[in-house]
Amino acid sequence: MKIITLSIIIALSVGLSAAQISDECLSCLRQMKPEVAFKCGRTPFLQASNCGKYDITFSYWQECGRRGATWMKCALDDHCAADCVRIYMRKHAVRCAVWLRKEVHQLTCGDYARIHSGGKDGCIMLSKVADKQFIDKCME
User: Fold this and answer.
1) DSSP bridge pairs for 56
2) Which of 20, 70, 79, 80 has the greatest count of CB atoms below 10 A from its CB?
3) How far apart are CA 108 and CA 136, in angstroms?
């Protein structure tokens, strides 16, 4: 049991350090939903609302460690929002890589787009393939 637990901890540690999202990828993620670039959802206290250039929801912000002063302030601040996205991706990269049968360092920006728009299970959601295709085209 101790060996299995240690193996999982090592795998997660390697995954967290290997999961890197480039500035070019972040730029493409910002382009996925340009209509929300400078505004927040009309109902800011509902978790389904989104905010900022990265279309960050309240629950997404919570998962990235509640960066910045508030959800809206972070989502509307380029630096804070980009940090939030990077943290969120590192948090879910290992799970995505396992589903896609890849190493974490082999994840593409398209794979990260599926995580970004679909959450921790985005990599297995067929509905998120279009997001991957959009990003793949953007990254060309």
Assistant:
1) 51
2) 80
3) 8
